[in-house]
């Protein structure tokens, strides 16, 4: 096996999907604790009032709110693998970047608050993972609290997310009575000790379900109940099947408490063993295998002002094949230029350091002076373009207006550039002089106004506008498209890349329009 193949085989690149407050930040802390990236868990995010800010906090807005605006990337070793965890902005900082990050990973961890079950944001994010049939590992969190019937929550995952569940561990009690989990594959019970959340615990393990030690440890009644329950569970649920998991049709399910740092290691064991190594990626000309010798990668995110002192922009690139080494030449395919990259950065839990080399599945940061756009491909000379890094239809809209009307040109330029970075999307209605800004998360609106002020010297304000959603429209028949353009013109606009977009005032309007024009295709995503 070549070094490249070995490096590819070692890597696991994943992201966490969850609803706000389900425990993503806490689980990230524990995962890093296991990865020994942090000495002691608890420094990922500065929580309200604690005064301690995470290493990755860099922007003023971020400091004020104690949230992480960046999608930082964390690399750490676990077992004999090298794990890349891509953080997905989740609270007010939820944005299109969250969606796009999910197109740059090979698997996802879904964290569910077991007291609440499947929530809204999780549903949305799962929809995005469906675009690539990304394999999903599930962690049912907060077992130290009273939760819903675990069987019921798994049923909810199956029916609402359309994915089979295969429990790998099974909880013994919950809340104050939480005793631990039984590991179905290892045939052992791992006992929970409360109050040990900040350390890696010495495990108290009882081998075998019929072991009398189990009765001693958790009591006769609970032990008997567990045995009966497990018979039911095994009968009623699916067995783990690697193929189905890799196709995104079945998820292994783990139970635990992130706060108590219990069960996170079981999940990581499963994830690092079963989740796929860097996968082949489609381009417009061929499928690129991770083990292809020639380097290639694509940009899925651009981050402005990573370092407030340097006002630079960093383009986050997912490496798809070959090896990056410091100083190498890469072809920036869209503009057809060869560039020498000597200062790419890697990300270690918020710290930026210079990468000497990096492999498929890794994320590197390129310094960007405005030439790099979301979706750009870099290669070693070959003219190819990775597909599947789309724009997502915004979910919130505002009309943007200038305080000084003479600066319309600067405003448009700023908005188009910010839309190329993926910060926001801009729409220009075809029949009037108006500018509509669309975003996936509300914080983006503030970010855009702040950046327009500092980087483009324009003062802009928002006005409310009644828009429910946007869809990119295409049609194979030019004549029908023209007719649509004439008849539905009031609701049509061009986006930052001049693609035709239907701006729907209401969902009802959208549905009616789709019915009325069956030959027109309405898309929720747009490829760059
Ligand atoms: P998020 O990133 O998904 O939004 O969730 P986060 O980890 O910030 O967790 C949200 C809240 O849930 C936090 O409480 C956190 O401590 C708590 N939490 C996470 N995992 C568990 C768990 O296993 N058990 C219990 N009981 N709670 C858990 P908070 O009060 O909002 O923050 P904090 O002030 O306690 O840090």
UniProtKB/TrEMBL annotation:
Keyword terms of this UniProt record: Cytoplasm, GTP-binding, Nucleotide-binding, Protein biosynthesis
CDD domains according to UniProt: RF3, RF3_II, RF3_III
Family the entry assigns: Belongs to the TRAFAC class translation factor GTPase superfamily. Classic translation factor GTPase family. PrfC subfamily.
Function summary: Increases the formation of ribosomal termination complexes and stimulates activities of RF-1 and RF-2. It binds guanine nucleotides and has strong preference for UGA stop codons. It may interact directly with the ribosome. The stimulation of RF-1 and RF-2 is significantly reduced by GTP and GDP, but not by GMP.
Annotated binding of GTP, by residue: 18-25, 87-91, 141-144
Major subcellular site: cytoplasm
Alphabetized PROSITE patterns for the sequence: G_TR_1 (PS00301), G_TR_2 (PS51722)
Tr-type G domain location: 9-279
InterPro entries: EF-G-like_DII, EFG_III/V, G_TR_CS, P-loop_NTPase, PrfC, RF3_C, RF3_dom_3_sf, RF3_GTP-bd
Location within or outside the cell: Cytoplasm
Record's protein name: Peptide chain release factor 3
Gene: prfC
Organism name: Ferrimonas pelagia
Record HAMAP family: Rel_fac_3 (MF_00072)
Origin: domain of life: Bacteria
């Amino acid at each position: 096996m070549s070094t490249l193949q070995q490096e590819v085989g070692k890597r696991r690149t994943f992201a966490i999907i969850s609803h706000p407050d389900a425990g993503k930040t806490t689980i990230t802390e524990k995962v890093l604790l296991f990865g020994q990236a942090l000495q002691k868990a608890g420094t990922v995010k500065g929580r309200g009032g604690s005064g301690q800010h995470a290493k990755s906090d860099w922007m003023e807005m971020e400091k004020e709110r104690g949230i992480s605006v960046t999608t930082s990337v964390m690399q750490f070793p676990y077992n004999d693998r090298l794990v890349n965890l891509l953080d997905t902005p989740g609270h007010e900082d939820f944005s299109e970047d969250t969606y796009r990050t999910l197109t740059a990973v090979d698997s996802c961890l879904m964290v569910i608050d077991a007291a609440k079950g499947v929530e809204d944001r999780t549903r949305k994010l799962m929809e995005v993972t469906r675009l690539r049939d990304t394999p999903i590992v599930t962690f049912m969190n907060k077992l130290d609290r009273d939760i819903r019937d675990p069987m019921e929550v798994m049923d909810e995952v199956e029916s609402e997310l359309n994915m089979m569940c295969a429990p790998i561990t099974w909880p013994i009690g919950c809340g104050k009575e939480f005793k631990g989990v039984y590991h179905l594959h290892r045939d052992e019970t791992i006992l929970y000790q409360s109050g040990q959340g900040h350390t890696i615990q010495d495990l108290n393990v009882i081998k075998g379900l019929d072991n009398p030690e189990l009765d001693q440890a958790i009591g006769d009644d609970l032990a008997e109940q567990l045995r009966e329950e497990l018979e039911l569970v095994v009968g009623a649920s699916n067995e783990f099947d690697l193929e189905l998991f890799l196709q995104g049709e079945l998820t292994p399910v783990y139970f635990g408490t992130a706060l108590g740092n219990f069960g996170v290691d079981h999940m990581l064991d499963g994830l690092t063993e079963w989740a796929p190594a860097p996968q082949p990626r489609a381009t417009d000309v061929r499928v690129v295998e991770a083990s292809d010798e020639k380097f290639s990668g694509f940009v899925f995110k651009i981050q402005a002002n990573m370092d407030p002192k340097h006002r630079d922009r960093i383009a986050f690139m997912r490496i798809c094949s070959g090896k990056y080494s410091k100083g190498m030449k890469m072809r920036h395919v869209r503009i057809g230029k060869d560039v020498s990259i000597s200062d790419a950065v890697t990300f270690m839990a918020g710290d930026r350091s210079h990468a000497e080399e990096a492999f498929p599945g890794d994320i590197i940061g390129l310094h960007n002076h405005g030439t790099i756009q979301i979706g750009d491909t870099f290669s070693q000379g070959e003219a190819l373009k990775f597909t599947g890094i789309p724009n997502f239809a915004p979910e919130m809209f505002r009309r943007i207006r200038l305080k000084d009307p003479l600066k319309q040109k600067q405003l448009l330029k700023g908005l188009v550039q910010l839309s190329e970075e993926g910060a926001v999307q801009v729409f220009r209605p075809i029949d009037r002089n108006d500018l509509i800004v669309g975003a996936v998360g509300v914080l983006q609106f503030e970010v855009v106004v702040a950046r327009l002020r500092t980087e483009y010297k324009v003062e802009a304000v928002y006005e409310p506008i009644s828009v429910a959603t946007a869809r990119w429209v295409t049609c194979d028949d030019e004549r029908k498209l023209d007719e649509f353009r004439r008849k539905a013109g009031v609701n049509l606009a061009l986006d930052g890349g001049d693609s035709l977009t239907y701006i729907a005032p209401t969902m009802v309007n959208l549905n009616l329009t789709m019915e009325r024009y069956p030959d027109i295709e309405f898309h929720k995503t747009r490829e760059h």
